[in-house]
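Sample A.
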Amino acid sequence: MATLLKGLPVAKALTEQLATRTRELKDKGITPTLAIVRVGERSDDLAYERGACKRCEAVGIAVRKFVLSEGCTQGELLSTIEAINADAGIHGCLMFRPLPASLDEDAACAALDPAKDVDCATAGSLYGVFAGRRVGFPPCTAEACIEVLDHYGYNLAGAEVTVIGRSLVIGKPVSMMLQARNATVTMCHTRTRDLAAACRRADILVVAAGHIGTVGADAVREGQVVLDVGINWDDAAGKLCGDVLFDEVEPVVDAITPVPGGIGTVTTAVLAKHVVAAAERC
């Protein structure tokens, strides 16, 4: 039976550390502040917003919401972003994406100051991840993978890691972050030839393909650590599940993150970490 790498202890430990750092900032007259930009009332945006606000409250971060109607103009959105950029009292900005099809998302992301970009929406933040520079911040979910491995004591230096997924949200940035920690990374995707063999070679497997059943028993071996980043709705089972066939993989590997209750649980704590770090940089 595998060890379950639950996200709650990781998030709790991060929250306690951040609360201390926030108190130190407030002693200097600085209140870390997050701006949330939301267009419309998407249910997934609202759910994440509630979780982010709850985490920020626990840490001591102030939150300012900028809510626009789904029918807002590009000019209204850009004016909102420009106001956030110009406000020295706002240290970080989370803009929910995807934006409605009527808006130019690339232009909106480009308008945001990378120094306030706490979830890697801008090209500047991506440059920071890929160049190893302190510009902006990595995607929260990608960094949550690193936080989980660190919390549970896994040494990344020299480890063989296979990442399944090549998105700019998780796959590509987490690969660069793992390499920055001296891991040897193999990047794969759903069209990789003999994907199962590439997975079995790894000490650590990060699965972020966005498809149910990407990894089953044939793709794992004893001693591995599996991070399942996928969040999917299984109509047949009527529940959330990851990209990994948990019931097949869990009896084989050494450790695995559950879905739900794994990587996703840590993302709002990482968001708070980025806001606090942005305030400290100021």
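Sample B, a different protein:
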Amino acid sequence: MTRVGIIQSNYIPWKGYFDIIHDVDLFVFYDDVQYTKNDWRNRNRLKTEYGERWLTIPVGKRWSRRICDVALPSGEWARDHWRKIEAAYRRAPYFEAYRAYFEEFYLRRQWSTLSEFNQALVTGIARDLLGITTPYVDSRRFPLKQSKGGRVVELLQHVGATTYVSGPSAKAYITDEGFLAAGITVEWKDYQGYPEYSQFHGPFVHAVTVLDLLFHTGPNAPYYIWGWRQARRVAA
């Protein structure tokens, strides 16, 4: 059985994104599709002393382009983002442990496209900081001819998937029928039950960038994404 996840690359996504990567045998970055404004492709939330604040990469207002075609601007956006991340988390227990790692991405390297930057951050965090060994592939490698849901099925067939693991929000526009006809089972990821951890600034918030989890819990971060489920199964 080959379990596959397919998601557009997101900017420093929340822990649920990495939960899916951990759960599958192959993860596909699906960036040769329409870029959507005001979405997770170029922004995410930080938890600050002033509440939740958006961290947004300025990529312009043109909507008629694919995610993989979105160019990153020159200028100070990366340095500005790192300053804001540092301001929000410099007192967190593990910020200094990861400072040099993230400064490499934000201060020492140059990125030409949003996809390139997002994919590098996601794969780096997953591999180096969370210990996830799942392999990755880019959907641009495959000669896809279908559209919408049919295109996802076609992509799954190309990679030999038997199970498609998807986030629950996709239920709004995906039905199981086309997948079942292709011999592919759809598994809807359940994001319920994530345990809380010691977090700055008031009531606990789950839906923030994974940086929040990393800077607060360090090497224990995997427990708060998937390890708690494994512990519960062992206890049962």
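Observation for Sample B: The beta strands are 3-7, 26-29, 43-48, 51-56, 136-138, 163-166, 185-188.
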